[in-house]
Amino acid sequence: MRTKNETEAGTGTGAGVEAGAGEKNVPVRFHTKIAVLLRDDLEPWQRLNVTAFLVSGLGTASPEVIGEQYTDADDTAYLSMFRQPVLVFEGTKETLTAAHSRALYRSLPTAVFTSGLFSTGNDRDNRAVVRGVGKDQLDLVGMAVYGARNAVDKVLKGARMHP
Q1: Cβ distance 113 to 143 under 8 Å?
Q2: Which whole number is the average pLDDT over 16-28?
Q3: Which of 3, 67, 70, 163 would you label with 81, given CA atoms 20 to 30 Å apart?
Q4: Do 2 and 67 meet the contact criterion of CB atoms below 8 Å apart?
Q5: Torsion of CA 161, 30, 96, 129, to 10 degrees
Q6: What is the spatial distance between Cα 20 and Cα 4, in angstroms, rounded to a whole number?
Q7: What mean pLDDT do residues 110-123 have?
Q8: Tell me, what's the pLDDT at 22?
Q9: What angle do CA 15, 19, 22 make, to 5 degrees?
Q10: Strands annotated E in 12-124
Q11: Among 48, 154, 141, residue whose Cα is nearest residue 104
């Protein structure tokens, strides 16, 4: 999705949109990628829950991923959303652990969801569950990552698109 400024200018604001984005029939390609990686043994409700929680963190750490507010033809306002697609992948526990290490190594904005978060019911307890375990011992069931497209692709090595 493009912001009004990106459409009018024909280019991004330096936050990841390739030149030509304002041309109507030219596909918009972003220099950046938003991706979620889920462990392949999650139940369907868990996949949805984990994805929703994970992507909620990216806009606070990287505000450039958020587009402008939506408005319908009646001028009813709606919340802003990501300005670009979120790609969802899946992989084994080992794939997720390796991707987590690569994301941290590259200092990419990363959100994590551990298996322990399924047993809590509030933000304070969620943070305590993650805080209680070192990064190499986290029982990850999902992660979200944002960054340069090629860097995110390297982080996701071994993962496959979610069916």
Answers
A1: yes
A2: 62
A3: 163
A4: yes
A5: -120
A6: 14
A7: 95
A8: 58
A9: 95
A10: 32-39, 70-71, 77-78, 86-91, 110-114
A11: 154
Tokens of 69: 């507010």
Residue 73: alpha-carbon gap to chain centroid: 29
Burial class (CB in 10 A: 0-12, 13-18, 19+), 103: buried
Return the closest-CA partner of residue 16 out of 87, 67, 92. Answer: 67
Compute the half-sphere exposure of residue 115: CA atoms within 13 Å on the CB side of its CA.
11
If pLDDT is split at 50, 70 and 90, which confidence band does 160 have?
A: confident
- Please, what's the largest Cα pairwise distance for the chain? 51
User: Which residue's structure tokens are 């030219």?
Assistant: 26
Give the contacts of 134 (CB within 8 A, at least 6 positions apart): none
Burial of 6 (0-12, 13-18, 19+ CB in 10 A): buried
Tokens found for residue 102: 């690569």
Please state, for a pLDDT cut of 90, what percent of the chain lies above it.
73
- Please report, as a single letter, which amino acid is at residue 11: T
CA proximity to 114, closest of 80, 92, 137: 137
> Which tens digits make up the pLDDT trace of 51-62?
999 999 888 888
Model's pTM, two decimal places? 0.82
